[in-house]
Amino acid sequence: MDDNVPPNNTLLVVDALIKANKDFDLLLIPNVAHGYGAASQYMTRRRWDYFVRYLAGAIPPNEYEMKPFSAISAMMRGGPSDADPADDSF
């Protein structure tokens, strides 16, 4: 449950948008407080997909898998990944 904004407040906004016949997108991420928690990479990809689709007018890659920052940093340094030492296929 969100520890900053009660979920019912979000639903009040959703209700108002529906009543005003407004288009909107809503993504709920369960089992986290006010951030994205373990879904941070998923949320980042979804945000980028949204920008690519609605601002750039292009089609984002289907279900692209985001890599952890530590894996990308290790790759750039030329060393093994802290996140997944067996996976060096970026």
How would you describe what is shown here?
The protein is an all-alpha fold and about 90 residues long. It is about 40% helix and about 0% strand. The longest helix is centred in the middle third of the chain and has 15 residues. It is flat, with a radius of gyration of 18 Å. The model has no long low-confidence stretch (mean pLDDT about 85).
Roughly what percent helix?
40-55%
Strand content: under 5%
Mean pLDDT: 84
Radius of gyration: 18 Å
Determine the N-to-C terminus distance: 35 Å
Question: What's the number of extended β-strand segments?
Answer: 0
Structural class: mainly alpha
Largest sheet, described in full? none
Number of helices: 3
Low-confidence stretches: none
Order of SSEs, N→C? HHH
- What is the 3D shape? flat
- Assembly state (oligomeric): single chain
